[in-house]
Specification:
By secondary structure, this protein is mainly α. 76% of the residues lie in helices and 0% in strands. It has 8 helices and no strands. The protein is globular, with a radius of gyration of 19 Å.
């Protein structure tokens, strides 16, 4: 009975993390798409930063209230999702580095809140929040991939190449202020989403109890 209960808790926890991440992903994608339509100016996908969608005004001075409010709402929801993921990870005592993963996710949640400050008014705070979100999710991805290295085999190098090959160029162009930084921002976001999605999926498969029937009956 104890084994069944532990197995059931493991299944519930892993499934909850998977569900919360899907909600986070769809919330962010939906928010960005809707904000592009509501943006008061003309948003150039490749040359404008996503942060512009949450600005209080466009570069030519027009109010961007609708896009800004929706952008903020999406960030609040994103913060709640990653914070809850962190809480769940902290309860999963059977997985390695559970507390560290919980910490990284909670810091990501704080980053989303800081990003609510409009970049055209509080650019320093907003940029710190963006760096926190990117940095913490990047570290989480690296940690997950490292723990899954033996099981991923050749895919480990592929995922590492995809992650580092998209995040690092963006980091370099951002720090140097290169004109191409906004292009690399979009590539980095896509790379991070793909790798983190795959890493969490394999993580769920790796730690799911082998005796599914016991877990199912206990739930």
């Amino acid at each position: 009975m104890i084994r069944a209960r532990v197995s059931a808790e493991r299944v519930i926890g892993l499934n909850k993390i998977h569900t919360l991440f899907k909600k986070l992903l769809w919330t962010d994608l939906t928010t960005l798409v809707l904000c592009m339509f509501l943006y008061a100016g003309r948003f150039n996908f490749w040359n404008d930063a996503f942060s512009s969608l949450g600005a209080s005004a466009t570069p030519d001075g027009r109010s961007n209230a609708l896009s800004m409010l929706l952008f903020m709402a999406g960030l609040v929801m994103s913060s709640c999702f990653v914070w809850r993921m962190g809480v769940v990870f902290r309860t999963l005592r059977f997985v390695p580095n559970a507390r560290l993963k919980s910490y990284l996710l909670r810091m990501t949640g704080m980053g989303f809140i800081l990003m609510m400050f409009p970049c055209n008014i509080y650019n320093g705070i907003h940029s710190a929040g963006s760096a926190l979100v990117f940095g913490m999710l990047w570290l989480l991805s690296v940690l997950l991939l490292q723990e899954e290295k033996k099981n991923l085999r050749n895919r480990y190098l592929l995922f590492q190449f995809l992650l580092q090959g998209t995040i690092l160029p963006y980091a370099i162009t951002y720090v140097t202020g290169a004109a191409s930084k906004q292009i690399f921002q979009k590539i980095a976001v896509a790379g991070l989403i793909i790798v983190l999605s795959k890493a969490l999926r394999y993580y769920r498969m790796l730690f799911m109890p082998s005796d599914r029937s016991v877990a199912y009956s206990a739930s």
